[in-house]
Amino acid sequence: MFDLEGKKALITGASGGIGKEIAKVLIKHNAEVCVSGRNLDELNALKELLGEKCYIATCDLSKKDEIIELINKTDELLGHIDIFINNAGITKDNIFLRMSENEWEDVLNVNLNSAFSILKLITKGMIKRRYGRIINISSVVGVTGGAGQANYSASKAGLIGLTKSLSQEVATRNITVNCIAPGFIETPMTEKLDDKRKDAILNSIPMNRIGTPKDLSSAIIFLASKESSYITGQTLHINGGLYTN
Ligand code: NAD
């Protein structure tokens, strides 16, 4: 139903569990996609899988100069960016009293500050071309908070605030800015949680199952499509009922 033919997308964290699925589904719907991440081997493997509509640009998002290079490289490969999926993210969990300055800064840098830097570089082009679809991957804990995740939940709440504000500034230019807030999704990020924590989370999900990256695909495609043109500034929760707002 949704056709992204002619549209050019950049996705960060594309070698991760959710990022890989987003790259696949964007290409399946005919977009050209620049997949970004830190690990060239993983990105090459992804390109092998996704074919000629997949382009590669490595970037460590904690480094501002690499972010500038990423956008230059993406422009070189794709010409411009219509769709930006801000997906890369990290956790460095710790109880607040033990959380170090580094644990705070590292998470805020990768999860939130890099979004600011990338959006500064790409929004002007979208405004000029009068088209854009920006999707920030937040998290349920950006709304609920989470013990041991002050850094992570602050970064994800920050993305929601950034989304709301930017959406208002660019709304007249046919640019939408939205968040997807996943609940608990099976990926390398959640693999590292111990079984006790996983069981506790599972027990709190009304659908009684942990999500998979595929559970996010249709929402991504919809928000990335021209058909979602009147939806902006929103946060769509995808969590099996774990949190309702
Ligand atoms: P993941 O660990 O599989 O993937 C994260 C990706 O981010 C990886 O590709 C990693 O290389 C990349 N990344 C990390 N640090 C980076 C850096 N400095 N520079 C560039 N890339 C970097 O995790 P995932 O579950 O696929 O997470 C994807 C997004 O979804 C994240 O923003 C995460 O916070 C969010 N999220 C995940 C869940 C979940 O349950 N898995 C829930 C809510 C939100």
Folded structure, characterized:
With 245 residues, this protein is an alpha/beta fold. 47% of the residues lie in helices and 15% in strands. A 7-stranded parallel sheet has the order 3-2-1-4-5-6-7, with helices on both faces. The longest helix has 29 residues. It is globular. Bound molecules: nicotinamide-adenine-dinucleotide. The site of nicotinamide-adenine-dinucleotide has 27 residues, from helix 1 and helix 7.
Termini separation comes to: 28 Å
Radius of gyration over C-alpha positions, nearest whole angstrom: 17 Å
Oligomer: single chain
Helix tally equals: 9
Mean pLDDT across all amino acids: 97
Instruction: Give the names of the bound compounds.
Output: nicotinamide-adenine-dinucleotide
Number of strands: 7
Provide the helix percentage.
Answer: 40-55%
Q: How does the overall form come out from the CA principal axes?
A: globular
List the helices and strands and how they pair.
Elements (H helix, E strand, L loop, with lengths): L7 E4 L5 H12 L3 E6 L2 H11 L3 E5 L5 H15 L4 E4 L14 H29 L2 E6 L3 H4 L5 H21 L4 E8 L5 H4 L3 H9 L10 H11 L10 E4 L7
Helix pairs in contact: 1-9, 3-4, 4-6
Brief description of this entry?
This protein has 245 residues and is α/β, with parallel strands linked by helices. The protein has 9 helices and 7 strands; from the N terminus they run E-H-E-H-E-H-E-H-E-H-H-E-H-H-H-E.
